[in-house]
Amino acid sequence: MYTDDYGTIKKWALIGFSNNILDDCRVTINNLYMNNPPTKIYEDVKEKYREIVKVETCKYENIDLSKMKKIAENFNDYVVGQENVMKQILPSIYSLNNPNRDRPVSILFLGESGIGKTETAKYIGSILGGYIVRVQFSMQQTNEAYRFIFGGEHSENSLARELIRRETNVILLDEFDKVHSSFYNAFYQMFDEGVFVDRNYSVSVKKCIIICTSNYLTNIEAVEKLGMPMYSGFSKIVKFMPINVEDKIKIAKKLMKQLMNS
Q1: pLDDT of 40-79, one tens digit each?
Q2: Are strands 209-213 and 105-110 parallel, antiparallel or unpaired?
Q3: DSSP secondary structure, 175-231, as one string
């Protein structure tokens, strides 16, 4: 059973899943592999078959010194005009090597649009070898946003589902400044304890790198808009500087070269 398969199950079958589905006389099961079951199903199966259930969790790549060196060496070729950014980020990422640390590293990017904040997150994810979870909060301005963040019906897509399907431990919450303040409660536990919980899932994000981009220009503006409780939840605040004319020319030439090569 894959992550999306549970959405096809009727709501009444979630409660007592073992009795309603697995113990049905029309079903004979030798081995059952359940990928990312919702909490109700997981708890039910674990309780009924506790002696034979085996739980396996995904092992993500460790961020060792060789990967950090690679991130540092190639960054300025990938993101132009932000030479000081990686110097600020790397110490926070290195803290994940502490065996006693479970909580994620949460980093808030400050700066105007189009200067490399999102590209920096993508670059870090590419070095760590896979697809990063990217959620654009500018798209979450409707009534559906509440259901996406806190969980709606078990058949609906949600932030928790996006997180549980990630391939790397890099999570990009793009345009975090567009998040309504009523949704901050969902992120306090995520940043502090490394757990994201909605009505259908409980997802571990321990030792993740959570990058939140914003268009705040200063730390003072970020505190005023986010509030001190949310602001102080970040491990690191990184300011991106405006790009000068010379760097804009470098970017234009780089994009032109890519275009001509294609």
Answers
A1: 899 999 998 988 999 988 888 778 888 888 888 888 888 8
A2: parallel
A3: TGGGS-GGGTHHHHHHHHHSEEE-SS-EEE-TT-EEEEE----SHHHHHHHH-HHHH
Q: Which CATH architecture has domain 65-256?
A: 3-Layer(aba) Sandwich (3.40)
Place of tokens 């259901």: 147
Helix, coil or strand: residue 46: helix
Measured between alpha carbons, how far is residue 162 from residues 11, 112, 158, 205 in Å? Answer: 21, 27, 6, 12
Listed in order, the ranges of the chain carrying CATH 3.40.50.300 are 65-256
Rounded-to-integer distance, Cα 210 and Cα 168, Å = 11
Residue found by looking up tokens 């571990």 in the block: 204
pTM of the complete model: 0.86
Q: Are the C-beta atoms of 197 and 36 separated by less than 8 Å?
A: no
Give the separation between CA 189 and CA 237, rounded to whole angstroms: 19
Rounded Cα distance, 2 and 21, in Å: 16
Torsion of CA 75, 79, 81, 84, to 10 degrees: -40
